[in-house]
Amino acid sequence: MALPELMLSDTLTGEKSRFVPIDPPQVKMYVCGPTVYDEPHLGHAKTAIFFDIVRRYLGRLGYSVFYVANITDIDDKIINRALEEGVSWEEVAKRYEEEYFRAMDSLKILPATVNPRATNFISRMIEFISGLLSSGKAYITPDGVYFSVESFEKYGLLSKIRMEDLIRDPRIEKGINKRNPADFALWKFAKPNEPRWKAPWGDGRPGWHIECSTMIYELMGPSIDIHGGGSDLIFPHHENEIAQMEALTGRRFVKYWMHVGLLQVRGEKMAKSLKNYFSVRSALEDYDADAIRIFLTSAHYRKPLEFSLDSMNGARERVRSWKDSAMRALRYSEEGRKGELNEDERKLKLIIDDEMRRFFLAMSDDFNTPLAYSSIDLISAAASRIVSESLSHNLASEAFFDLAEILSILGIDLMAKRRVDERGYIEALIEVRKQLREIKMYDIADRIRKKLMDMGVMVEDRNGETIWWIKE
């Protein structure tokens, strides 16, 4: 099946357009990671899971994704937490970084290509800031180095905020002798008992915004395909990233800005500061990772999602029905005789094929997961009908492999509980494939071969016989 072209909405332009990477088939994608001063909650997981699905889907479309997700390991919040606990800021950052990665692993999120820590790039940040000072885009005050927003004509385009409104915006950081209230810190001079690094203009530490810009520049270059994060980062963080990067390089920074709507509790953002959050650790005590993944992506990614236990329970039952239907279809397909489809079965096959196309159309339409999940519901229902009505075993096999393929894009592995070295299971799949080839159902046979290869099982047809082995 030919896959549809991917269409993406760009926060900056407000338009949806065909995805065309800078240097295909490579895609450079950067997503802002956590500031590690507390345990991760489901709001963090919502963004991480969505971009995990984006990465998996891009791979399915044939792209090679270079995925960077940073760790902010120096920040006011980390310093304050260390002072509260009477420990070093390094200890706080290390503890919560490890907890974050444990949580993401438990949620089946694939590791990023690189997870850079901000503190490993301090010298590069100093070079970056020096370049902005040299060009007149930044200036020094008694408490640090600031970026001059008036020096960047496009400031405010991402967030759609007018310069005159910035004076009253509570998110604007305070500073001594700033030229414009909206100017933001590139470097903060050290206060007593704070961590510090040497710099030509005075010892201190980087501002938050310069960290991401520098890590992107060093790891991915001046221009990237996709930059993502929560919608709460549009301003000031991502607005300031654009200003810094484009002021330094003179080049377009990001082709597609993707922002994830916030997880809400009673209409308010789920946040540690509001004490209304549910940690990933506590959620996993009552729900498995698959249920959490589907709940957190059940609304369109750009829209906010209201948290409720009823919705979590509904997602759990939905995933359970998908898995049960798929595994029943697999067991049924292994039991019976292969043969041609009758007329009713061919009509059911058309329904399954049509919903497969609809799934990929929905995912390629700016990741419309609600519509995509509706197609999974219908394929799952068709799989159940095949078994309950004792229909074609061939069709049951196709329904299973269709579900396995699309659920794997969502991070749900139907084979997770089956050991790849179970000889009987592998040989059963080989035999099913052989029988399908004999009746010229090559599309399903090829899908089985691909699934075996994904499991690490290599297949070769020689003189009418099929040879298989497990790739080391």
Entry summary:
The chain is an alpha/beta fold and 472 residues long. The chain contains 15 helices and 15 strands.
Description of the structure:
Helix content is 47%, strand content 14%. With 472 residues, it is an alpha/beta fold. The protein has 3 domains: 17-306, HUPs (Rossmann fold); 311-413, Up-down Bundle (Four Helix Bundle (Hemerythrin (Met), subunit A)); 418-472, no CATH class. The longest helix has 27 residues, at 309-335. It is elongated and about 80 Å long. The mean pLDDT is 92.
Topology, element by element:
Blueprint: E1 7-9, E2 16-18, E3 26-31, H1 42-60, E4 64-69, H2 76-85, H3 89-106, H4 122-134, E5 138-141, E6 144-147, H5 163-166, E7 184-189, E8 204-206, H6 208-220, E9 224-230, H7 234-249, E10 254-260, E11 263-265, E12 268-269, H8 280-286, H9 289-296, E13 305-306, H10 309-335, H11 343-364, H12 369-388, H13 393-409, H14 423-438, H15 442-454, E14 457-462, E15 465-470
Parallel strand pairs: 3-4, 3-9, 9-10, 11-13
Antiparallel strand pairs: 1-2, 5-6, 6-7, 7-8, 11-12, 14-15
Helix pairs in contact: 2-3, 4-6, 6-7, 9-10, 10-12, 10-13, 11-12, 11-13, 12-13, 13-15, 14-15
Give short descriptive properties of this protein:
single chain, 472 residues, alpha/beta, Rossmann fold, Four Helix Bundle (Hemerythrin (Met), subunit A), 3 domains, 4-stranded parallel beta sheet, 4-stranded antiparallel beta sheet, 47% helix
